[in-house]
Design brief:
alpha/beta; 16% strand
Length: 383
């Protein structure tokens, strides 16, 4: 069974109510899991960030919370005033993720995929934060005091020469062209990847002999998805994410995308213009009901973003709303078994063409109403 999971979202200074674009991958994963009759999956969050270290430090000066307490409070606030997700949250520092990460790292060290190596780096003169391999001001303490050269033992992955970072099998997209630009950009990753970092929060690498270091979050994102899939006993996890995000993390996930009988693939999606004023004006001009607004923003636009991975332009919104309205009016009371079976096979295989097929989409919408809330009348009708 294919399990769709969102690429872990950074726990930054926003809420899903005021910046719903951050939820595009979450909504797409939920929609595809519901369509394929897969029970809800947890929402995945990335908490191992330098920005999180700085924000927690500033907040703790006023309210003394541990980093874990602060992260939990910040994540709970993301969903206000609505309810938390039914399947809960999973962060990249959760115990099951940490346990899997250490097991994977030990296995990959044993077979030579990863190594412990002494690397020349720059350390902050004020806080000793590892600022990378190039001299620049420390972003962890922002003192501007400069850095000094040092040699640190780090967890590293030396990428095999001549092997591409991404191949067609890494994408959940049958009958779609290979995203050549993404493949080329991802290939520009450094030959040696540094997989241990200095952070105030993260999966501690002490068991590997790297005291004071945590696992690089770009590898941690993939292991969070694998941990969620392993917890459910699913061997085919699919991570929803944008092309830009994939370009930044793909090289770091390459050593683990096929691990323990699991094969992780990417389902690319484009940006949704949730923050454009045209969307609000469109709803007002056409007197769109709250029900159809939710259907459009939470269900149909994520599907369109999956189909149009370059992103949805604001100019496309009126036509897409008109199309969904027509589909809603044509929605059957009960989806036809043969159409639903074809639809579920397409979604599980990564075939996205049906998203703009009015007949098939009407049955997908009927299935959503059937397995979700109580049946609702189409737009323009009364119960």
């Amino acid at each position: 069974m294919t399990l769709f999971l969102n690429g872990p979202v950074q726990n930054g200074p926003f809420t899903l109510a005021n910046r719903p674009g951050k939820a595009a991958g979450i909504r797409l994963a939920e929609t595809l899991n519901q369509l394929t009759d897969t029970r809800p999956a947890p929402h995945l969050w990335n908490t191992v960030t330098l920005d999180g270290d700085l924000r927690h430090r500033a907040a703790a000066a006023a309210v003394p919370l541990s980093r874990g307490q602060w992260e939990r409070r910040e994540l709970a606030a993301k969903y206000a005033p609505g309810p938390a997700p039914a399947a809960g949250l999973l962060t990249d520092t959760a115990p099951q993720v940490a346990a899997l990460a250490l097991q994977v790292c030990q296995d990959l060290l044993a077979n030579g995929t990863l190594a412990l190596a002494h690397v020349k780096v720059r350390l902050c003169l004020a806080c000793d934060h590892m600022a990378g391999e190039v001299d620049h001001d420390c972003r962890a303490c922002t003192t501007g005091t400069g850095t000094r050269p040092a040699v640190r033992q780090l967890l590293v992955h030396d990428r095999p020469g001549g092997r591409p970072v991404l191949e067609r099998a890494d994408f959940h997209a049958s009958r779609a062209s290979l995203p050549a630009h993404l493949v080329n950009v991802a290939q520009n990753a450094p030959q040696r990847l540094l997989l241990s970092r200095t952070r105030a929060c993260g999966i501690g690498l002490g068991p590997l002999g790297l005291d004071g270091m945590v696992l690089d979050p770009r590898l941690g994102l993939h292991l969070t998805v694998l941990a969620a899939a392993a917890q459910r006993g699913e061997g085919r996890p699919v991570m929803t994410l944008t092309e830009n995000a994939a370009a930044h993390v793909a090289a770091y996930g390459a050593p683990v995308r096929r691990w323990g009988g699991m094969q992780l693939r990417y389902a690319l999606h484009g940006r949704i213009p949730y923050d454009e004023p045209v969307l609000r004006r469109l709803f007002e001009a056409h007197r769109v009901t709250p029900r159809l607004q939710r259907l459009f923003t939470e269900w149909y636009l994520p599907l369109c973003a999956w189909r149009e991975r370059a992103g949805i332009t604001p100019a496309r919104l009126p036509a897409l709303l008109k199309f969904l309205r027509r589909v809603d009016l044509a929605r059957p009371a009960i989806p036809a078994d043969e159409v639903l079976a074809e639809l579920q096979h397409s979604a599980a295989a990564g075939d996205r063409r049906w998203v703009m097929d009015a007949r098939v989409l009407a049955h997908a919408l009927a299935h959503r109403m059937e397995v979700g809330s109580a049946p609702e009348p189409p737009e323009g009708e009364t119960a």
